[in-house]
Amino acid sequence: MALESDYRVFTEGFCHCFALELACAFAKAHRPIEFVYIPSRIHDGVAEHVLIRSGGALFDAILGAQREEEVVSRWLPKTAGRLEKVGHPGWLLRPVDALAIHTYLALRIEQPYFEMARDRARRFIDSNRDAYQLPLKPV
């Protein structure tokens, strides 16, 4: 994970960590938040990618607001080709045991890596606040 680009880390395995941190940043900025996911072709309950919908746009590790059509088409080869609402944000984080984090959407990550990914997401979002239409942080 440490040697990969932020884009790759947050689009190929840690997107739910990114979505959780982006939701925190949006909440602090008093922006509406809705967690959405793109279901896998294999099973509707398996997420291929998790994003935030806010103000009619979608947000993930790609900088800037995105339209639903462009996000869905980018993920089309391995997905069901649509967005679904995450029923409850807790589905993105549900501890099962001391060693791993499992979630309802079949997202799995070991606890230390989960925290590292969230920290990295927080730093990435902070360094790209303008792209996410967030106010600058006070110095």
How would you describe the overall organization of this protein?
- With 139 residues, this protein is α+β, with helices and mostly antiparallel strands.
- The protein has a domain at 31-127.
- The chain has helices at residues 6-11, 15-28, 68-75, 111-127; strands at 34-39, 47-54, 57-59, 84-85, 94-95, 100-102, 108-110.
- The chain has a 4-stranded antiparallel beta sheet with strand order 3-2-1-4, sandwiched between helices. Strands 5-6-7 form a 3-stranded antiparallel beta sheet.
- A hairpin with a 4-residue loop joins strand 5 and strand 6 (100-102).
- The longest helix has 17 residues, at 111-127.
- Residues 94-102 have low confidence and may be disordered.
In short:
With 139 residues, the chain is α+β, with helices and mostly antiparallel strands. Helices cover 32% and strands 19% of the residues.
Keywords:
alpha+beta; 3-stranded antiparallel β-sheet; single chain; 32% helix; 4-stranded antiparallel β-sheet; 139 residues
